[in-house]
Specification:
Length: 328
């Protein structure tokens, strides 16, 4: 009887283990799916900006993007029965996050894309994890620089140098300034990624809504005063691009972003960075007539190699497979 009891217990444990593994696999598939969707949504943002910036001014695009996205998310939050925080401290955090993750980077990217192609902007934006690795070393206790990360940072910056090109040595033209602006946006995103860790206990939709509301309150007076958007006469294509930028690449994207950040951690968001330039380049080539040069692909390759080194998981996986092969 005791043996039978042990057998039944082992059988139950194995069954429970299999069920748990199946759940974990399902969770993995869901998270991978969300990461892929997020990369497409954010890759599309460079395309939408590339369309809108031809007939609209930078601050107006940013104000329209965050304002419309905030409205859509407020409706979404209300339909879900969620409540926005009432604490001034929480709203202060939303404003800071909005500045770091929306106001500053959105403005820099849109202005940068008035001088450079969307595909190049998306590749430069992929340097965000490189900045994050450096900032995390000084601003957090958990993520210190290792040999792999340091090597990845150096390789990534070689990629940036390849993207900007030796022409930059002859003088800072408008195109170079546009590239620097997008790099500044990547730095701001890196600060936002570290600051955003404090929102893990709050529903992703509430965080995204509060952040976008704060961004709207900050950018709207500036856009109205500086650019006087009522004087613009954009066509339907630009208006549609702005709506897509707000509804698809901002509202929906941020809900997914904070969901992945809460369930998979900031490290897995690095995978999004790998994929964003791919969709942005495809859209730019197909619909905007862009033709990235050899330096774009060389720079992207070096940046991706740097990101692989910073992430470290693929390197560890290869070491593990090599060690297993050596034992056999």
């Amino acid at each position: 009887m005791k043996a039978m009891s042990i057998t039944l217990k082992l059988s139950a444990d194995v069954s429970a283990s299999r069920q748990s593994a199946a759940v974990n696999r399902a969770m993995d598939f869901r998270e991978w799916g969300l990461i892929l969707i997020l990369s497409i949504l954010w890759g599309g943002s460079f395309f939408f900006v590339g369309v809108a910036v031809k007939e609209m001014t930078p601050l107006t695009i940013v104000a329209g993007r965050v304002g419309l996205a905030a409205f859509l998310l407020l409706v979404y939050v209300r339909l879900r029965g969620l409540k926005m925080p009432g604490s001034p401290w929480e709203w202060g955090a939303f404003f800071i996050m909005g500045a770091l993750n929306n106001l500053i980077p959105f403005s820099l990217i849109v202005w940068g894309q008035t001088h450079i192609e969307s595909s190049l902007a998306s590749i430069l934006n992929a340097t965000t994890p490189i900045f994050s690795a450096v900032l995390a070393h000084y601003l957090t206790r958990e993520e210190r620089l290792t040999i792999n990360r340091l090597a990845g940072i150096l390789i990534g910056w070689l990629g940036v140098a390849a993207l900007i090109g030796i022409e930059a040595l002859r003088g800072f033209g408008v195109e170079v300034l546009g590239q620097i602006a997008v790099l500044g946006a990547a730095l701001s995103y890196a600060f936002a990624a570290i600051y955003g860790r404090r929102f893990k206990e709050i529903d992703p939709a509430v965080v995204a809504t509060g952040m976008l509301c704060g961004s709207t309150i900050m950018i709207l007076p500036l856009a109205l005063y500086v650019e006087q958007p009522w004087q613009l006469a954009p066509g339907m294509g630009s208006v549609a691009a702005l709506f897509g930028l707000a509804a698809i690449s901002t509202s929906l994207a941020y809900i997914i972003y904070f969901r992945v950040l809460a369930t998979s951690g900031a490290t897995n968001l690095l995978l999004v960075t790998f994929l964003i330039p791919v969709s942005a380049i495809i859209l730019g080539v197909l619909f905007l007539g862009e033709r990235p040069g050899w330096n774009a692909f060389t720079g992207m390759g070096l940046i991706f190699i740097g990101l692989v080194a910073i992430d470290g998981r693929l390197i560890e996986r290869l070491r593990s497979l090599t060690a297993k092969g050596a034992r056999f």
